[in-house]
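Please check this.
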Amino acid sequence: MKKGPPPALALGAGAAMGGGHDCSPHPCFSTCGVRGRSKLGEGVLFYALFALFGLGCLAWSLCAAVLHRVLPRQAGIRLGRAAVTGLMRRFVDLSQVAGLVECDLGDLDALAGQGPLIVAPNHPSMFDAVLILSRLPGVACVTKATLWDSPFLGGGVRLAGYIRNDSAVGLVKATARELRGGGRVLIFPEGSRTAEGEDLSDLKGGFALVARMTGTPVQTVLLETNTGFLGKGWPFFKRPRFPLRYRARLGRRFSVEGDLPGFLGELKAYYADALARRDEGSP
C-alpha cells in the first residue's frame, strides 16, 4: 500500500566532524555538513570515497581468501570480523569527515559484549549493513549467497564465518549454532530493502523460528534516514542530496514464544509504529 515518504530525519541536523553551521539543528545529531562545495564536487568526492572503499574491500577479500586456508577457524573468524568492522568504520568516518554523511549510531555501542542476541534492524538501504557492522565488532551477519562468490566481499565473508543464506534449513542450523555458542547475529527480518514510500515488507520467519528454538531475544534496531539512496530501485549512480543522514536507535527487545505468524505480525506493527514516532526520541 502506498503512503507518504519513509521515516526521515529533519534536514536541519548539524555535524560533529564537518565545518560550517546550520541554522536549524536537529537534536538527533551533533554534526553538520561542509558548505561552500559545489554539487558536482560533492558527487565526485562521494563516489571517489566509494571507489576507495571498494578497493579496500577487494584487497582485504584477496588477503582473507588466503588466510581462510591457513588460519585455525576460530582465529580466522575473530580476525575476519574485526577487519570487517574496522573497514566499515573507516569508510563511515571518512564520509563524515568529508561532510557527506552524518551519523548518529551511538546507541549500537550498548550492544557490545551482549549475547546471545539476534540484532534485527529495518532495512531502508544497502548502506544499512555498513552502518551497523561499523559499530558491532564480532557480530555474525546473515548474507546473501551471491556475496560469497564476489571478488570484493567473498574472501572476507568466508574468513569472518558469516552465515550464508542459500537455504532455509541451512540458515536455521547455522544461526542456531552461532547463538548457542553465545554469539550475536545480525539479520534483516524483511529479507530485502523496503521500497521508498512503501510499507515495510512482510517479515521472514526463519529468524523467529531460531529465536524460539534457542530462547534468544530479538533486539530491534530502528534505522532512520533522510534519503532514498541505495534503497530498492535507486540507481547506484543517481546522485543523492548531501549530506546523507542516518540514525540508529535501539528499539524494543522481544522474546519469541508461541505462534510465529502472530509474533511476525506484532513485530511488523511495532516497526511501523516506532518509526512513525521517531521524533518523540524513544522507541
About this structure: Residues 39-70 form the longest helix (32 residues). The beta strands are 101-104, 117-121, 140-144, 163-165, 184-186, 218-225, 244-254. Residues 61 and 224 are 30 Å apart (CA to CA).
